[in-house]
Amino acid sequence: MKHIIAVLLENEPGALSRVVGLFSARGYNIESLSVAPTEDPSLSRMTIQTAGSDDVIEQITKHLNRLIEVVKVVDLTEGAYTERELMLVKVRAVGKEREEMKRMADIFRGRVIDVTDKSYTVELTGDQSKNDAFLEALDRSAILETVRTGACGIGRGERILRA
Amino acid sequence: MEISKAEMASAATAANSAASSSSPVDLRGGEILVKALQAENVKYIWGYPGGAVLHIYDAFFKQDTIQHVLVRHEQAAVHAADGYARATGDVGVALVTSGPGLTNAVTGIATAYMDSIPMVIISGQVPTAAIGLDAFQECDTVGITRPIVKHNFLVKDARDMALIMKKAFHIARSGRPGPVVVDVPKDVSFNKVPYHGYPETVEMRSYNPVRKGHSGQIRKALQLLMAAKRPYIYTGGGVLLSNASAELRQLVDMLGYPVTNTLMGLGAYPATDPKFLGMLGMHGTWEANNAMQHSDVLLAVGARFDDRVIGNPKHFAQNERKIIHIDIDPSSISKRVKVDVPIVGDVKDVLIELIAMIKESGLKPDSHALGAWWSTIDGWRQRDCMKYDSENTEVIKPQKVIQTLYNLTKDADAYVTSDVGQHQMWAAQYYKFNEPRRWINSGGLGTMGVGIPYAMGIKLAKPESEVFCVTGEGSVQMCIQELSTCLQYNTPIKILSLNNRYLGMVRQWQEIEYSGRYSHSYMDALPDFVKLAEAYGHVGMLIERPEDVEPALREARKLKDRTVFMDFRTDPTENVFPMVQAGKGITEMLLSPEDL
């Protein structure tokens, strides 16, 4: 089952590699990972998307907590949360396709952020399934390049993760 | 930096005097490092110099409160400091240079990590400006050691040295202990910076290990324990690390329940007490393993249900039981076995609270059920699973050597270290450890070669105690160069090598699991160990006859000031029994050669 784990950790060199090393050393999966400093520059916040049985997820959160530089760990999927991912897709846009691509981007509430005579770059934000759906809606051969940030998650309402 | 004895009379005074002085003194990074070690009351450090640590060694030259021991290989520096830590409970400290110095230390660090031993390992690093440029003797120390340390640091500025050292010691000894590596670039140990004194306390928002267990959980444990029909107490290395042997003994005395120790936990409960069922696990006793399998309430204390202890987890799960698990590390709980009552906390604190609650509750164990349980256990004991051909007059049985050592030293102030293999299991089975921190071995990583360095680390700190190293001709050759260190630092140890000419445990598995195909487990061209010991300036003894075992041990013990290497020629075909084969349940045991 898919889990989204939010981790607050000291913004120090090497802290990221401890997290990544933990996952590889113990055979856990990382499906996506995004990390950046928070409003407090001494702290980084990481969102890890992973999958596993309840037992595995329990071990993952325990081992994350065991890392000295980790301040807090929350499995967002245990409660209400929202998730967003930014995706940039460069698509072929020649002739009739140009109109079609623009319309498709509009339907998915994407924005065209770069244009050449042969291509568009579309920016999309949403949960991962929405971004997946956009890619599936396109003719595969029209996709020139894709880049995704991975999930970025936050608890709903009063669910707050702070140091 | 001149550090006089008077100035260093007490570490605290040293720290305070520096802290209270209005104008901070300028010190080099290496000097601050030495001040930090003094403030932490470090008495011994095992190390090996090299280019990247020369400034640190220079600072050592100018002080006289910490004794440095020059080993012959960095692996042994870490093992010796580790053995010292295991025997004393203090943080063990080692110092190695960059590159190969550190990579040689890796085995020692991983060994300490697997057994949760508090250590600080200081490594030299190339100058900060050279990091990442493939400089001479450069390696990514922080990267290489990351998976085998509790934490590690790269000191990038001499100004950070004191605080990082404070954190390193704090992390190493608190919570679930473990090794911490501090990597010090050469320029950082050379640069002069204002020194404001050694911090007295350290606050880390990301690291606050719990000590006290949850009272509600302890109460649940109490109720389960008191309602038990077939209770069992299973304890591991955590009891020793937490110095909770006295509390464990008190608990067992109050309840009258049977108790077992893991390989790492031996000595936590007196092995000669009738309530002790022996070690459990792959080479545990029949009664210890059967009680584990058939108990209805299992109290696990500072133990982690590892694969050598519970065998096949599916077989273990066939019997229903309630499990209470006390451990300071939440990630050890419900890792391999589902636990009903987890109690996260320091073993000592939790046991104290549990004992108090039992007293307060006025509850008593079900004596009728307990009586029946003990008679079942006595039935298992009738199997006498530890018997062997003890009267053999033709060939030395390895078990006999250990039993003789035990009989001669049971009332002495003795420590026993071992290497890894058959001899380790025989030492664990036949030496009855009645006190904590007397049995020193590598349980988790299973590192051959630890025996001599462990022994010399302990002997340095405990010069009045007798230190025995039980080893084999395979293991002992992995760190035999340390015989030289033993002479230089006058740490006379007694080495009992059970020489069967085979890598015995490998040979045993090949006999049982591989139809006797002894692939590369026979060592031809062994050295003459007597001459080798003599070449290192020690005493060598060759013992080939069963009747010579006891006289040889007596003679060796008389040579108090000498390291003695005893080369016992033991039965090459002897196997360790009982044995749980790979993949089997813990009660599916081979008890003797007849079971093969």
User: Outline of chain B, from the CA principal axes?
Assistant: globular
Order of helices and strands of chain A: EHEEHEEHEEHEE
Main beta-sheet strand count, sense and barrel state of chain B:
6 strands, parallel
Structural class estimated from helices and strands of chain A: alpha+beta
Main beta-sheet annotation of chain A? 5 strands, antiparallel
The strand order across the widest sheet of chain B is: 3-2-4-5-7-6
Q: What value does the average pLDDT of chain A take? A: 96
Shape of chain A: elongated
Q: Which whole number gives the mean pLDDT of chain B?
A: 95
Characterization of this structure:
The complex is a heterodimer of chains A (163) and B (596). Chain A is α+β, with helices and mostly antiparallel strands and 163 residues long. Chain A has helices at 15-25, 54-66, 96-107, 128-137, and strands at 2-10, 32-37, 43-51, 70-75, 81-92, 111-115, 119-126, 143-148, 152-155. In chain A, strands 5, 6, 7, 8 and 9 form a five-stranded antiparallel beta sheet that branches. Chain A has a four-stranded antiparallel beta sheet with strand order 2-3-1-4, with helices on one face. Chain B has a six-stranded parallel beta sheet, with helices on both faces. Chain B starts with 10 loop residues before the first helix and ends in a 6-residue tail after the last strand. The chains are: A alpha+beta (163), B alpha/beta (596). Chains A and B meet through helix 1 and helix 2 of A and loops of B.
